[in-house]
Amino acid sequence: MIRVLIMLFGLAMFFHGRFVSAQKPMAGKVNTKLEVYYFHTSERCPIDQAIEEHTRKLLQSDYAREIKDGIIKFRVLNTDDKASKPITDKFEINAQALYLVTFPNGKQVKNDLTEFAFSCAQNNPGKFISRMKAEINSSIK
After folding, report:
1. Pick from 61, 35, 54: which is nearest to 131 by CA?
2. Strand partners of residue 39
3. Which pLDDT belongs to residue 31?
4. What is the pLDDT of residues 13-23, one digit of tens each?
5. Which residues, other chains included, contact 38 with Cβ-Cβ below 8 Å and sequence gap of 6+?
6. How far is residue 133's CA from residue 130's CA, in Å, rounded to a whole number?
7. Side by side, which strands form the sheet with 72-78?
8. Contact, 99 vs 36, CB < 8 A?
9. Torsion angle in degrees (nearest 10) through CA of 123, 48, 46, 121
10. 5: buried, middle or exposed (CB in 10 Å: 19+, 13-18, 0-12)?
């Protein structure tokens, strides 16, 4: 009886170590490939609202898994809010802006899509969404 208990205890210790070590590499490992930042002021115009709405809907519908897994992060920040100041200072902006930020080789690269977004988000949402998809897909591959 004691031999059986010792053998079961040994097997439990052996397999316990296997399961714990197999889970460690996955736990906490998040590889953010893309950060999407949309900045706006407190006073919002229809174009500004369209950019945020289309970006949010696109990310929620087509990239929900990537957001859940931490591959893509989406942040909407009010440039008039003092809590946003460290980030707005980093981007050197004080108004509306749309940025896709990637991290090739650990270096931060900012892709400013503000002008493009303001030119078509409200009047040509299909063009806006199409380009956003292309930009996002190339950023996370």
Report:
1. 54
2. 77, 97
3. 82
4. 544 444 333 33
5. 51, 52, 55, 74, 75, 76, 77, 97, 98
6. 5
7. 72-78, 34-40, 97-102, 109-112
8. yes
9. 10
10. exposed
**Whole-number Å distance between alpha carbons of 120 and 51:** 9
Quick check: 1 pLDDT over 70? no
pTM score: 0.76
How far, CA to CA in Å, does 41 sit from each of 58, 65, 78, 96, 110?
A: 22, 29, 5, 6, 20
Whether the per-residue pLDDT at 122 is higher than 70: the answer is: yes
Q: For tokens 């980093």, what's the residue?
A: 90
* Pair 54, 125: CB distance under 8 Å: yes
Q: 46-81, pLDDT tens digit by residue?
A: 999 999 999 999 999 999 999 999 999 999 999 999
Q: What is the DSSP secondary-structure string of 71-115?
A: SEEEEEEETTSGGGHHHHHHHT-SS-EEEEEE-GGG--EEEE-HH
Q: Six-digit token pair at 20?
A: 């714990």
Architecture of the structural domain at 34-140: 3-Layer(aba) Sandwich (3.40)
